[in-house]
Amino acid sequence: MVGADPMPGRSPGREHTGAMDRIIVRRSGPLEGTVTIGGAKNSVLKLMAASLLAPGTHVLHRVPRITDVACMRELLGSMGVRTSWIGPSSLEIVVGDEIEPEAPYELVEKFRASIVVMGPLLARCGRARVALPGGDDFGPRPIDMHLRALEDLGATFTTAHGYIEARADHLLGTRLLLEFPSVGATENALMASVRAKGTTTIDNAAREPEIADLAAYLNRMGAVILGAGSSTITVEGVDELHPVEHTVVADRIEAATYLAALGVAGGELTLVDARHEHMDMLIAKLGEMGMRISPDPDGIWAMAPRRLRAVDVSTLPYPGVATDYKPLLVGMLASADGVGIVTENLFSGRFRYVDELVRMGADIRTEGHHAVVRGKAVLSGAPVRAPDIRAGAALVVAALKAEGETVVADAHHIDRGYEDLVGKLASVGADVRRG
Ligand code: EPZ
Question: How many beta carbons lie within 10 A of that of residue 169, not counting itself?
Answer without folding.
Answer: 9
